Amino acid sequence: MRRAVLAWSLVGLVVLAVAAVAAVGWVLSSRVIVPSPYGLMPEFELTAVAELGGGRYAVGIPAPELPGHAAGDDAGHTAADGAARPAQHANPRLQGTYAVMWEGGYAALGETLSDAGGVVTRAVELLGGTPPAAGAPARMDNFYYRHDPLTDLGLPFEDLTLQGPVGKLRAWYVPGEQRTAVLLLHGRRRGELIETLRFTQALHEAGLPVLALAYRNHDASDPSPDGLYHYGASEWQDALVGALELARRGHDRVVLYGLSMGGAVALEALERWPQAAPEVVGLVLDSPLVSVSAVVELGAEKAGMPLPATLTRLALLTARLRTGVDFGGLEQAAYAPAIGVPVLLIAGEDDSTVPIAAVDAFAAAVRSPLTYLRLPGVEHVEAWNHDPARYALWLREFLAGLQVRAAVD
Q: Are 266 and 178 contained in the same domain?
């Protein structure tokens, strides 16, 4: 009798253990593949607000304990040394072209007015919505533009709805002088077409038409059948829809341009490029998601989870069961030697989303002409924010070296 009870007890423990592992795998995989609304996600409260006139305000922002742009996720975290780190954009001493957002309004971050008593006071210029108020939950943000090419940049554009393999795809087409066009792909989760606005101006000034495409599960584009991220394993089909739209418009050459997950989508599309699409003459990758496993493991480490490598394997195994995608097959360093066009690769050494080591490995595997800008002190897709003029110069120099054809006949 005791043996039977013991046996059934062991069976129960095994079942509970398996169920616990499955539950953990489900939760972790959901963080990787399930789209979730971004919302404001405030990082601090404005401590004080004073009107300066002309749509400008002085706003007080709590200062992090440590100077510099500390790496972290959207909720902040505690480092291994136990020191508190601010959330990714919550450093009020950060210089560059950034926005401050609060519920119902946003502003351009301006000069520092004071830095004392744990509060940095910055001038801001209201760009839209209601003025800031003391005590308002807010965040700093690298999405500096938040409307469309005409409203933010003064560039006429077409707001398109294309038919993709799983439904409608939203895209913006900004005309240009050249027959060579740019297919611009946004990043994950927050991936809306407004992310591409920071890069559209410099491309337009270089004379290149731009098609910014929102792939499935993003912006106003339709979701995938399973409603889950595939990190390029299926989204590449949507990128090709954009490429064929450019061909229909008479463009016979294209520069692929991917931001974060958009970089993975661009690479997966390039691997399957059809003859009917414009010839790819260049590839621009800004903070590209070149390794899903490295991104997930870094996320587990930032969250303070034990055994991050083991949890990463569990999360990706569960994600594969849910999506049918072999995420191990999306290690872009394996494909890098086959890239046959010049590459401009931009990455920040302080990237807290895509580990710089993963980007280094990808860069080392590229065999085509490569310009690798490995930038100290720069976070995920923030090279433009640090210095828009310098970023535009990098683009112009890279594009000038490509076989860009003159105006459409």
A: yes
Per-residue pLDDT, averaged over 336-342, amounts to 98
The whole-number pLDDT of residue 3 equals 61
Residue 382 lies in a domain: yes
The verdict on 336 and 372 lying in the same domain is yes
Give me the sheet containing 253-259, strands edge to edge: 158-164, 167-174, 210-213, 180-185, 253-259, 279-286, 343-348, 370-375
9 occurs within a structural domain: no
What does the alpha-carbon distance between residue 107 and residue 101 come to, in Å, rounded to a whole number?
7
Give the gyration radius of the chain's Cα atoms.
23
Whole-number pLDDT of residue 409: 44
Residue 117 sits in the same domain as residue 239: no
Residue 19 has pLDDT above 70, yes or no: no
Between CA 250 and CA 177 the distance in angstroms is: 12
Distance CA 109, CA 100 (A): 6
The C-alpha atoms of residue 381 and residue 7 are separated, in whole angstroms, by 55
Backbone angles phi, psi at 113, to 5 degrees: -95, -35
Q: Please state, as a whole number, how many other Cβ atoms lie within 10 Å of the Cβ of residue 346.
A: 25
Which H or E element spans position 67?
none
Q: How many other β-carbons are positioned within 10 Å of the β-carbon of residue 63? A: 20
Q: Determine the residue type at 132.
A: P
Give the pLDDT score at 344: 99
Q: Which residue has the tokens 């100290």?
A: 376
Same domain, 120 and 211: no
Tell me the pairing of strands 279-286 and 343-348: parallel
Domain, as residue range, for 183:
149-291+331-400
Torsion of CA 308, 326, 236, 285, to 10 degrees: 40
Q: Express each pLDDT in 115-132 by its tens digit.
A: 999 999 999 999 999 999
- 34 vs 229: CA distance, rounded Å: 6
Query: So what's the pLDDT on residue 189?
Result: 72
Same domain, 279 and 177: yes
With helix as H, strand as E and coil as C, how does 126-180 read?
Answer: EEEECCCCCCCEEEEECCCCCCCHHHHHCCCCEEEEEEECCEEEEEEEECCCECE
